[in-house]
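From the shared-data thread, chain only:
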Amino acid sequence: MIRFLNNNSLIMSDMTIAPYDLVIVGCGIAGAAAGLTALREDLTICIIERKGREFVGRKICGELMPMRIVKWLKNEFQISVDHYPLKGLQVCTFSGLMDGDHGIVRVTDPLCTIDRWQFGQTMVKELLRRGAELHQGVVRGSVGKNEVHGVKTHDASYLGTLTMDCSGVFSVLSRELRRGRGSPSRIGLGYKENIILEEAISQEYATIVFDNSFVPSGYFWFFPKGTYELNVGAGGMEQRSTHFRKAVAQALHEHTRFKIKEKTQAGYGALPLGGSLPSMVAPGLLACGDAARHTNPLTGEGIAPAFTAGHMAATTAAEAIHSKDTSLEVLWKYNYDFMQRYGALLGSSLPLRDFMVSLTSKELQSLLQNVITDEVLSQLEEKEPSFTLTDILTTAANAAKTPSLLFKLACALGKMGILRAVYSRYPKNPKRFPQWRTLATACGGV
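Structure, as tokens:
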């Protein structure tokens, strides 16, 4: 039996709902950005979220993001979100952290911290107010054989002209896109907790600490959320979750002067640390956020790439739907646009991450004091850094006392340069993709 709803959509049997312009799976950072963008483009959208509405935003997260996203939401969508402003990011060892400015390098790109749950609730409220439909359900798979036409949950099917996968690191929709990228070696773990302090602090930078004597394969973070609160944690490729919790407790006890009053919101989470998927589109499907591995392998930061991906993917989807051409060739624009913005950064961070976690605390401290300056660290996030490999190696040769350290640095920077060049040549159409992927694979990028 077929019947019409008031909004002119169809119900084909009691289990199948159709049609929407866009079906979005997941109402996290990427899903929210995609939904807001799609609604502004006059698309009908349905968001499938596995959590109940009141739990959207409950996620283990560092809660750090660029200030430009707060400004973007305000300017583009008139949405105000609570946040705590920071001057930027600083990288150091524990000895550098205790000594003050000695051996600390900084990027003065304004950042802020948010309350992840409150942020998620604000996004849900705005999406519903602007016309989105929100349904709770666990997606079991896609509708369609050779092309995605929607998704199936345990009790319904939701059909759409296009489908966007923003469902997280263990997505069931993007298995084909993730082929060869979903091994345990590519998935990291993180542990975080919010600590409430007895005394006010004046920390103006988000802090990332590398020290392989505590976490051999990762990093620590200390992100202020206010004058009496910090989001602290550890993350990396280590697969033993209890190790991170113990490492955080030990680091807080031995290497900080914080007087802790209370600990809240503790927990573990998985995060993709293998660089972006080489392609984020398939017939009828676009993937964003953790589902597409949009996380910086060096720092674990994923909010900014997820926001950017959600916005870009929804913009491309709207153009495809309005032009009545949803072919892979049209959807490929999202791939190209995202890779131009984040491909080189996410791809080339892999060898830098592996290099950083391989260093002893003493070696890293020497580099931060003598080689890796504020300017160099800042330039690492640029598409075309102004420094050259020769510049850094010349500085390092004058400062380094061990040839092995100089050799490892040269190898890491060389790999980064190669990967930046590879990602800068990302193909504008899918026909050239197999050739590009072969090259990128040979260079260790995918």
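Confidence is low (pLDDT under 50) at residues 1-14, 181-185.
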